[in-house]
Amino acid sequence: MIKPNLAALLALALAPIALPTPVAAGIDGNARSINAQSLITHIRKLASDEFEGRSPSSKGEALTIQYVTEQFKAAGCTPGNPDGTFVQTVPLLSYRTQASGPMKVARGDKTVEMKFADDFVAWTRKPVDRFTLDGELVFVGYGVTAPEYNWNDLDGVDLKGKVLVMLVNDPPVADEKMFGGRAMTYYGRWPYKFEQAARAGAAGCLVIHETGPAGYGWDVVKNSWGSESFTFLGPDNNESLCPVEGWITTPMAEQAFALAGTTLADVKAAALKPDFAPIPLGARITFEASNSIRRVESRNVVAKIDGSDAKLKNEIVIFSAHWDHLGIGTPVDGDAIYNGAVDNATGVAGMLELAKAYGKMRRKPKRTILFLLPTAEERGLLGSAYYGANPLYPLERTVANINIDGLNTLGRTRDVTVVGFGKSTLDDITVEAARQQGGRIVKPDPEPEKGSYYRSDHFNLAKVGVPALYLGSGTEFIGKPADYGATKRKEYTSLRYHKPSDEVQDTWDLAGAVEDLQLAFHIGLQVANAAAIPTWREGDEFKARRDAMMSGKK
Asked: Domain check: are 336 and 280 in the same one?
């Protein structure tokens, strides 16, 4: 929901405009070097079967690191790590669940059995060879504790040692002032749900999958968590994490609630009432599994274009796009390589094109441009989280992050999307840069209920205070029906997102991607050369962290 004090900005962004020309007259000559042929060459390489889906700690990682490093060097970049290398080592823990049998929900003499991968996925992020889940089921609504909304789903019942069942997304209350209105907040994201279970001392947490509220189908859950996964190993050996985490399908949840003498529809209705309290279901859930674990190292790629101003070159503008995908997984129609062409070979190719464009500038931007390609985004934003906790350059001197997670492969658009529009003054820069690009317009995220602002790498820079812009594809495709963009988004999510079928398509038209990258170039250039640096809007959730940082406080 756009805040009232941003209405003027939104009106300006959506003002009627002329159709953009194929190459807008105002485009900087260096940005013109960004072209579709170079993009598709990079994408085909990165998304080829040779790269085996670019999983962390694999042959695909080694090939990816080698390729992008060579391309950054050719573009004129220098090592982004002060130690003189193009990488930042990220220590990870690999784990893979092997179910010993079905997950069972029992009440009295009745039992519901669930099959691993088909009906549920569950895992532990603790470094143990075997684990079990055994506890009483308690439904805790959306699992949200939000004092600012006088909302506490966990209040009233001792949840220690219980297995919590939660609904995905935020509570869909009628009051649009709560939980971001239509937009998903961090309260709705699955990491928050597991964090809540850990704080409650629960033995486990299962999130009920629903395609609409989750923003993706069950295949995405199965492919993302049903094989090898990665996490950090904390100083407490991950003892503070929820012991067992997982998802269950809607049909299985319905059977479990029926066993407990109620329905999913009834408990969902109860979860929206102001006086909701956790509901013990009178049923016990059990599951046993082995856990294949190994300590591994992966790498973030970092390359930079040094700033030209004697003072401002010590300040950093970060462009980010994750390099990883899901690697080799469960075969679908005989194909086991999850190539990740759109997600996110396109974004990485975009970073290489941006590096080339900045590298061609005779006089470089005043501030330093850092290209950050994080690892393990698909495993929980791990590479960017590591960078946020272990920045290579001081965060107070990091003035902005511009993130790309998937480029437009469908042709030119009249508009461009800003996911999280209204959060920072980076929006003002984007609106003006778009206008100068032949009169393009800026729109908010068309699907804010998916919570995309909390699902890509910029989030880990934002939450430590750095103003972050997440550029998405436009929705008004030139020469196409009004619903073309929405139809194609749904088609991609259903047929290719996190599937082996996310491969380069002969039907792609990268003209829109080129324009979006040229726009990103100008946004970055404006930020790098401006006297004032971007700031969070008044009232934004990340503003306090930035204010404290910039005032010298910890």
From this structure: no
